[in-house]
Amino acid sequence: MPRSMRALVAGEVGEPDDVLRLESRPVPLAEAGQALVRVTATPVHASDLHVLRGRYGFSPEFPTVGGYMECVGRIEALGPGTEGLRIGERVVDAAIPAVPGPRVDGTWQEYLVADAHRLLPVPDRLSDSEACQLAVNPLTALLLVTRELDVQPGEWLLQTAAGSTVGRLVVQLAGHLGIRTINVVRRRDAVEEIRALGGDEVICTEDEDLVQRVAEIAGPAGVRKATDCVAGQLGAQVSQALAPGGEVVVYGALSTHRQTDPAALTIPVSARSLIYETKVVRGFWLNRWFGAASPADVLDALCEVRSLVVNGVLTIPEGRPFPLERFAEAVSFAEAPAHGAKPLLVFDVGRPEDDRQV
Where are any strands of DSSP class E within the chain? Predict the structure, then answer.
């Protein structure tokens, strides 16, 4: 009899609480160049929930297994001719769908099949919590600083949402690379946290003017490189604070987190600054980077991230585990304000194999 597994499936577009169901599905088979991975932990990202609501940059075919970003597990079987991996090896699956590109299975299931080139072996010294969060936020921080903006030692980097997971990783990475950071937060109680993490300067928009403070810190010319994860009016202020010829890379829109009208997802940038000061405002989306980069480039970047985490340069916050059956609690926790930890769906890998028969 074929083995069965549990999977968290969305039957249609809608609110996660309404459309997600725990189902039993056959364990898939690995084909040539693929591996069957027994998942041990997988995060619940805000982007996963945006996909289910139909508010993300791609839409899967429904019904769909949820979870579209990353997980950790062990290889249980290899397809014919699959090389470079071994059964029992612990791996991270960078399951981020390439855009444009083929869809991949969601990670919110006990087993999944993955192409061998997207699997990254990870040492046992990394916890499941660290390993299953390796491929999205740390990789985003690395790419923004070193690839997208190529910030050099001694340069200023201005960033919004410095208290976010990516923002904190950028602070750590910048300190390691000798880059000076100007970090924007919205709460006064976050200022000392960012300073303690290594942030050189912190601007609190609760009671400080961003453009004025950047000029005081970096001089009247402003800064040449910035990242923005807020958009809206704050994103506009970041572009205003740029030096002539400066560049801001926008990778999120937290100011419109609950916005459902696409027309409201804006950054009111001054045309004069774009024309006469030749400033650049452009976007970054990890999914599109995966679609444009070669498998070798993806693997190189993931290996670099793994090294930074293993060596303690980047610290991934401990997640909060939820058994798969408590997925509704995990979803609620993911959307709670200032929850402080990433919810992780975890699987009981000690269940007797006989329990998986149908």
Answer: 4-10, 20-26, 34-43, 64-65, 70-78, 90-94, 111-115, 119-121, 156-159, 180-185, 201-204, 223-228, 242-250, 280-283, 320-323, 343-346
Which two three-digit tokens encode residue 2?
């074929």
Helices H / strands E in the chain, number of each: 12, 16
**What distance lies between CA 335 and its chain's CA centroid?**
15
Q: Cα–Cα distance between 119 and 100 in angstroms, integer?
A: 20
What confidence tens digit (pLDDT) does each residue in 104-120 have?
679 999 999 999 988 99
Task: Report the pLDDT averaged over residues 72-78.
Answer: 97
If you classify domain 4-134+288-356 with CATH, what class do you get? alpha beta
How many Cβ atoms from other residues are within 10 Å of residue 184's Cβ? 30
The stretch 7-16 carries a mean pLDDT of 95
Q: What is the CATH number of domain 137-284?
A: 3.40.50.720
Of the candidates 324, 248, 286, the one whose C-alpha atom is nearest the C-alpha of residue 135 is: 286
